[in-house]
Amino acid sequence: MNRTTIASTLLAATAVSTLGAAFGTATPAFADKDRDNGHAAVYNLHGDAVDASNPAGSKFEGIGADEKRGRFYVSEVTGGEIHRGRAGVSWTQEWLAGNGTDGRYTARGVTVDDKGRVYIAGGPNGINDAGANGIGNPGTDNPTRPDLWVYSKKGDLLAALQIPGKPVFLNDVAIGPDGAAYFTNSKAAEVYKVDKGRNGWRVRLFADASATIATQAGFNLGGIVVTEDQKALVVAQGNTGALWRFSLGTGKVSAVRTGGADLTDADGLVLQGNRLTVVRNFKKQIATLRLSADGRKAKLVRQAASSPDRVLTTAKEFRGEVLYVDSKFDEPVASGPYEVIADPTR
Predict the structure, then answer these.
(1) Tens of pLDDT along 272-322?
(2) Is pTM, for the whole model, over 0.85?
(3) Using one digit for the tens of pLDDT, what is the confidence trace for 112-124?
(4) Straight-line distance from the first to the last Cα atom of the chain, in angstroms, rounded to the nearest whole number
(5) Which of 236, 229, 179 is nearest to 213 (CA)?
């Protein structure tokens, strides 16, 4: 069975039961809540027990924000569970199960569109020898697993899609002004586009920038945002620290002029007006730049150390503050507390 057939088969599973709050424990009463603005300094995530099937504990990476409904979603690398939180409530719930649910064994970037639909990047989920829980060494194409998923706001599976013919590591995702979702590939200089056509959900190659961006060892394209003028994407290349501009109109790619700013280990990006925040995971730094409206140039404003005890991966603006995911990537066997934090120095 080829990848396209598998994708169609999985898509037919739209009738899968609504997952929602059927998984995880109930959210407790409002705690650590600032009742004036609905913020919490720390949001707690549920972790899994360490055992033979889960030897690394729980590790996390992506976060997506639904401003309209006051919800946010966090992806678990170890198992692929998706956790959901609410504004001002310090505890989150497991919203979608992992460990093979809808073919998902790991998950990375998450975003939410205006309709509340949740888009999830699978990282190495579709790579054959990704290892236990999908966090091992990338290998060959596995035609039995999806590379990305789309869910309704209620948790119904809308699409489970694969990139045909090649192994990919879909890292992060952003919603464009056209309503489509754009996914970065950390194995190559590629961005993929996902939307719903006349015949259902589809994934297509939006831009192949291999003639401009040299693929190097480690993680290539990762964090992604839409420029202030809504005409381009700005994408981080983690292994080199370069920022790249992808024109939404033509797909043309050019380097963002950063004046030589050190952005190596760039992971998640957050754009608020003209302020671009770059989360530099293992460097344990948060870089702030002033990005031009068209995304062609950026000026470094400051570099600030994040907590030395955390490896922050990505972040999203949510109800007027920025939430950062503590990945636990620095712990061979992760242990709690598992947290999303509003203060990266905490």
Answers:
(1) 999 999 999 999 999 999 999 999 999 999 999 999 999 999 999 999 999
(2) yes
(3) 999 999 999 999 9
(4) 49
(5) 236
Predicted confidence band at 259 (pLDDT cuts at 50, 70, 90)?
Answer: very high
Residue (of 90, 118, 91) closest to 19 by Cα position: 118
What span, in angstroms and rounded, lies between the C-alpha atoms of 203 and 334? 34
CA 299/CA 36 separation, integer angstroms: 35
Token couple for 51: 């055992």
Q: Could you tell me if 167 and 141 are in contact, meaning their C-beta atoms sit under 8 angstroms apart?
A: yes
CA neighbor of 213 nearest in space, from 182, 241, 188, 232: 188
pLDDT band at 340 (very low <50, low <70, confident <90, very high): very high
Which residue ranges form the domains of the chain, and what is each CATH number?
A: 3-341 (2.120.10.30)
Of 267, 292, 274, 262, the closest CA to residue 344 belongs to: 267
Taking every pair of Cα atoms in the chain, the longest distance, rounded to a whole number of angstroms, is 55
Query: How far, in Å, CA of 256 to CA of 246, rounded?
Result: 10
**In this structure, are residues 20 and 155 in contact, taking their beta carbons and an 8 Å threshold?**
yes
Show the DSSP H helices in the chain as ranges.
3-11
